User: Fold this.
Amino acid sequence: MRLNFLACLALLTTLAGSLQAGDEAVLRISLIHGQNENIKDNLADCQKFRESLTKLFGYQHYECLGTASALIPRGGEAVFEPTWAFQMKVRSDAEVANLFHYELFQEKKHLLGGKFIPKDHIPFIIRGPQYNQGILILVVYKNDPTAPAPPK
Amino acid sequence: MNHDAMEKDLQSAEIQRLKEELGALAQSREPADYACECSWTRIRTCLLEESRSQDIHLWRWAAIGSCAALVAILSLTKSGSKDAPFAESRNPQIWVSGFHSSPAQADVVWATGYDYLPASYPVK
Assistant:
């Protein structure tokens, strides 16, 4: 009986914590350029992240071109502009916790949109257009201290 | 009617017949014969009852196992589809698909059909 009570209490605490965690989120969006040569690779400190990109795209070097971050409250929205060329409008769903709707633009031209559930330590990666001899990649992180820092 | 159901019906009929036989014996035989026949009939009845109850147990376990497998499959497929990112494009040239990549440990939107950006494009 006592064990049941303790188990219920633990469950309620976990639920309350997850609800509170879904009220707001810090999102960070980076624009990455992947190419095999002739770029400044500035993701040396993010090995786990590099592995994800390499498995998906196969390039050997990755350069973070820009990063933008914002705190989005439940039901709120923010426009991220990691570089001048790409904008991403992100809106938090007012009814479903931790669900975000996004629209991706290139110079105000709508490219694509959709929704995603950000997870700690799991990046949300969007394959962008081919650029130069490589590719552009947009990466969204949630509360991840291992994510690439803004370029200096 | 399948084979199992037919067999159960036959067993039920056999049990009923044995019970009637037991009743008839009780009225027609001498006390010593009656005790002997009665024991033999009871053993056969018990064996048949046991066989039938084992069938029921097997059926129950099979049903429980099937339900558990179904729930597991549904929960796995539901969580997978619920958590994967969704993407769509109004531009008919751009084709998009959202999925979770386990090898890369990332949620991915794979889009193709963009216009190529040359090196001269000022992306920064």
